[in-house]
Automatic annotation (TrEMBL):
Biological source species: Streptomyces actuosus
Region (Disordered) residue spans: 125-147
Keyword Transcription attributed: no
The keyword Membrane is annotated on this UniProt entry: yes
Annotated InterPro entries: DUF6114 (IPR046096)
Residues that span the membrane, as ranges: 21-37, 49-71, 78-94, 100-119
Pfam families registered for this protein in UniProt: DUF6114 (PF19609)
Protein name (database record): Integral membrane protein
Length: 147
């Protein structure tokens, strides 16, 4: 049976996704979108309309924009993620307690994931445990005493 080569749109998307902080950007954009949706809630649900109304829409819109920028321009992910976490925390005051906490948590988590993403990093090697080191050293110590 021949080996399947990974071609097609799904494989191309997978390769594109691995070269950028995909989940961080996606969560930041979803957090901003969720906060924008809570701005449209009925007045019985709205807890805090926001400072003059403009900041309540401006901060989550910028969160969505920063999430998309993280996805399509990952070279500047550090600046975008730091700005995204500050905007996420700012929605606590301006947008219904950060979209009833959900949008704030999504935005902060996505920003942290994007900040911690490292491109083309070598996989970590597993360090031996202390118990494995002791068992490996014990026969060597016993062999030295026999002579």
């Amino acid at each position: 049976m021949t080996e399947r080569t990974r071609t097609g749109p799904r494989a191309a998307f997978r390769r594109w996704r691995y070269r950028r902080p995909f989940w961080g950007g996606l969560l930041l954009a979803l957090g901003g979108g969720e906060i924008l949706l809570t701005e449209q809630a009925s007045l019985k649900v709205v807890l805090h309309i926001g400072m003059q109304g403009l900041a309540g829409y401006l901060l989550p819109t910028l969160m969505v924009l920063l999430g998309l920028l993280i996805l399509f321009n990952p070279a500047q992910r550090l600046f975008y993620s730091l700005t995204g976490v500050l905007l996420s925390l700012g929605t606590w005051l301006t947008s219904n307690l950060g979209g009833f906490f959900l949008g704030l948590l999504l935005g902060a988590t996505g920003s942290c994931l994007a900040f911690g993403w490292l491109p083309d990093q070598e996989p970590r090697r597993r360090r031996p445990r202390k118990a494995e080191l002791r068992t490996a050293a014990a026969p060597a110590a016993g062999a030295g005493e026999a002579t």
